Amino acid sequence: MQIFPFFFAYVKNFYYFCGVKGFLLSLFFPRTCPMCGAYAGEHALRGQICSACDRSLPRTEQAELRQNITEMTLRDIRRLDRAAAFLFYEKNHPVQQLIHKMKYADQPMIGYYLGRQAALEFQYAEFFEGIDLIIPMPLHPRRMRERGYNQSEYIARGISEVTGIPLDLTHVTRVRNTPKQALQEGAERTTNVKEAFAVNHPEQLYHKHILIVDDLVTTGETMKACISAMRYVRDAKFSVFALCKAR
Ligand SMILES: [Zn+2]
Fold it and tell me: Which CATH class is domain 51-246?
């Protein structure tokens, strides 16, 4: 008979602590839209943008468009099957801010959220059909230490979660730290990035269809160098997913 008051006290305290915990969590990890700052709701994923901002994202609609601008930028790559970007990257557009936060302001969950969102939309165009594994564009270990995370890996994790395609973080590594791409010009950029990647155990990648995931494709030189490092991988095919394509 005496158990009921305890039971109700327990339930009350449970909710009380949930409330405190929720409040403390919201102080450290506010569930706000990273684009406009509006409250995104208690159950929003971290990195999730609000529906108004989502509608304003400059989508490329490239998933089912062959010979789109991303694919054309990368057309020199041998054995390229398909390539598409989710968003257009425009200077002075809120997307620029969003990508900046994802890369440099310790908010990699933005990448995870956008990767999931892109995968949900690209799935309808069967963009991921036949792909065996996902390799995020690797960061050089030194840059990884500075930043603490690889934003492309977060994007790839979002895609992997939706599609069920496994992530591969071991076979391709960055062996040369290249200066910030955006600050450089044409030919110089190519020489800097060449031979920047190494492939471990290439035989384990034989006959695979590999999706390379990157945050931003501009001239495509980094992507070309990365896939070129896998030129001795027998009978492999490559596809590219970029979160953004610079116009
Ligand atoms: Zn918003």
Answer: alpha beta
How far is the centre of ligand 1, averaged over its atoms, from the C-alpha of 74 (Å)?
32
In this prediction, residues 175-179 reach a mean pLDDT of 80
**Residue 1, token pair as written in the block:** 């008979």
**Which token pair is 133?**
């594994």
Answer yes or no: are the C-beta atoms of 87 and 57 closer than 8 Å: yes
Contacts of 27 (CB under 8 A, 6+ apart): none
d(CA 190, ligand 1 centre) in Å: 37
- Residue 32 Cα to ligand 1 midpoint, Å, equals 8
Q: 38 C-alpha to center of ligand 1: Å?
A: 6
Domain ranges of the chain: 51-246
User: 55 CA distance to ligand 1 centroid (A)?
Assistant: 9
From ligand 1's centre to the CA of 39, what distance in Å? 8
- β partners of residue 211: 134, 239
Q: Return the exposure string of 172-200: e unless at least 16 CB atoms fall within 10 Å of the residue's CB, then b.
A: bbbeeebeeeeebeeeebeebbeebbebe
Please tell me the least confidently modeled range out of 34-48, 62-76, 101-115, 210-224.
Answer: 34-48
Q: What spacing in Å lies between the alpha carbon of 36 and ligand 1's midpoint? A: 4
pLDDT number for residue 24 = 55
Q: How far is Cα 198 from Cα 223, in angstroms, rounded to an integer?
A: 13
Give tens-digit pLDDT for 119-130. 999 999 999 999
